[in-house]
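Duplicate of #3305? Posting structure anyway:
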């Protein structure tokens, strides 16, 4: 039996999952690692923790599957996107901690870009909104703030990588210095139309070209790991950023295919085929994962507070004792009885983009119970997702008939039911919920030849449950118009 080993290097944990040739999980292991908060709003990871936890879980996953390194046909990597590492090529040693995507230390730099109007150029070339999330300003910060870094960069000694690049570089003993389109597209240095690093952006951020890795399709033979590291040379056959890997894991490979991950926040991605769709609603345009050739484009939108609203019910309001209890309570009442919860705790994202909006509970009467509040909170997550789906549908000019889901809160049947009702489309929850790792495995297995094409994968794919809409258009419109009023109430006039 041969397996595909997926390495899923996430923000809070590293996972290794072994998939068999049917796309089934044969063994998995995961390890959390340290989050470093040097100052308010700053987030870092120690590169040694990223590497150590990732290597550690590989052996464990193999043991769980009763397999050995010799049984691994190929490796696929998926990773937290945008997180930035810079190291010295002469030693392989990072010159600073990894600056995590969430880190806000370069927010002022981005405000300045907006004031100067440079954000328009950035959007045209990269499809991104000028924001501190993306790697470019983080690289610049390291070059400007680490002693001697600028001189080393000028001399050609420094290398930049997102986590995928760093992992491959380390695991191959410095032989692989590469990334894929999906990761490159999140750096704010990569032109998504020409599929090349952009010289104008490199000079804008004062970053030498010699720091940047080669860029390849997600499914591609990247090279082999060094035997000194894992005891064997393993072929790395795929790399993709986590959200794009998840999109591929759902086999959303056709125009109009869309997935949502219900985690702490929600991440929506829609495949828009060969067309880079310009958004009129502040969505991001980026690249999809694929095997060989030119990649498809995606539209991406996120809900800041998704499952976190359920944590709020549990930890602050204390009206539930576990996240799962929210489903039970929501089902105890026939409706939210006109109550709406807008979880705009940190402002509203797409399509409203109102940083000053704050959470709101509206429509409360003397009869409002905790069941109503809990139900309305779950509904609030679904309404926010629906707002983004509608924006994507309008931007791309496609009608959405299916939404594929994953992530912790997708386990909530009430939430999925309500999502189907409010979107008036089918919501499909897969049997394998490790969609990110599955996407990396699919890409690697298609590249190595374990699978011949996506048709074969579609044949193996199992939907655990399909949620279909069960309310009529009149009721849907009534609910949506109530939501719009509630959103207005959450915004400061
Ligand atoms: P992340 O990857 O962002 O840490 P996960 O995919 O692990 O997130 O999902 C965790 C989130 O899902 C938490 O915010 C939690 O409140 C929410 N969650 C987990 N189970 C349920 C459930 N049954 N119903 C509603 N929300 C849930």
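Output from current build:
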């Amino acid at each position: 039996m041969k397996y595909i080993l997926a390495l899923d290097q996430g923000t809070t944990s590293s996972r290794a999952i072994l998939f068999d040739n049917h796309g089934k999980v044969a063994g998995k292991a995961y390890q959390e690692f340290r989050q470093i908060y040097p100052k308010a709003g700053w987030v870092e990871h120690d590169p040694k923790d990223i590497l150590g936890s990732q290597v550690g879980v590989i052996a464990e996953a193999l043991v769980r599957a009763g397999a050995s390194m010799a049984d691994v046909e190929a490796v696929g990597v998926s990773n937290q996107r945008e997180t930035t590492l810079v190291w010295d090529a002469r030693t392989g040693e990072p010159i600073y901690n990894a600056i995590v995507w969430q880190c806000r230390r370069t927010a002022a730099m981005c405000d300045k870009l907006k004031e100067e109007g440079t954000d328009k150029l950035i959007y045209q070339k990269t499809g991104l909104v000028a924001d501190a999330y993306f790697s470019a300003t983080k690289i610049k910060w390291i070059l400007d703030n680490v002693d001697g870094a600028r001189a080393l960069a000028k001399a050609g000694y420094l290398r930049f990588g997102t986590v995928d690049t760093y992992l491959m570089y380390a695991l191959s003993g410095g032989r692989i210095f590469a990334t894929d389109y999906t990761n490159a597209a999140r750096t704010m240095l990569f032109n998504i139309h020409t599929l090349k690093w952009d010289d104008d952006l490199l000079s804008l951020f004062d970053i030498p070209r010699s720091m940047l890795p080669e860029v390849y399709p997600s499914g591609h033979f990247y090279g082999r790991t060094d035997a000194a590291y894992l005891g064997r040379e393993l072929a790395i056959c795929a790399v993709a950023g986590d959200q794009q890997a998840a999109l591929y894991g759902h086999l959303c490979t056709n125009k109009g295919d869309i997935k949502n991950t219900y985690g702490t926040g929600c991440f929506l991605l829609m495949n828009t085929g060969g067309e880079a769709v310009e958004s009129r609603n502040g969505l991001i345009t980026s690249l999809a994962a694929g095997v060989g050739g030119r990649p498809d484009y995606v539209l991406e939108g996120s809900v800041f507070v998704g499952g976190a609203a359920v944590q709020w019910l549990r930890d602050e309001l204390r009206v539930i004792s576990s996240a799962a209890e929210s489903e039970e309570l929501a089902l105890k009442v026939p409706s939210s009885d006109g109550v709406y919860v807008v979880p705009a705790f940190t402002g509203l994202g797409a399509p409203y983009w109102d940083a000053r909006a704050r959470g709101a509970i509206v429509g409360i009467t003397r009869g409002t119970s905790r069941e109503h509040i809990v139900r309305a909170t779950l509904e609030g997550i679904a309404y926010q997702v629906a707002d983004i789906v509608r924006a994507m549908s309008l931007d791309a000019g496609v009608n959405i008939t299916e939404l594929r889901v994953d992530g912790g809160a997708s386990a909530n049947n009430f939430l999925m039911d309500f999502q189907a009702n409010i979107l008036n489309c089918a919501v499909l929850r897969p049997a394998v919920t490790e969609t990110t790792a599955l996407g990396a495995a699919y890409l690697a297995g298609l590249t190595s030849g374990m699978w011949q094409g996506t048709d074969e994968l579609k044949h193996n794919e199992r939907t655990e449950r399909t949620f279909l809409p069960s309310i009529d258009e009149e009721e849907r419109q009534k609910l949506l118009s109530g939501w719009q009023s509630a959103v207005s109430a959450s915004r400061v006039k």
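Confirmed duplicate; merging threads. Residues 3-233 form a domain with the Nucleotidyltransferase; domain 5 fold (CATH 3.30.420.40). The mean pLDDT is 94.
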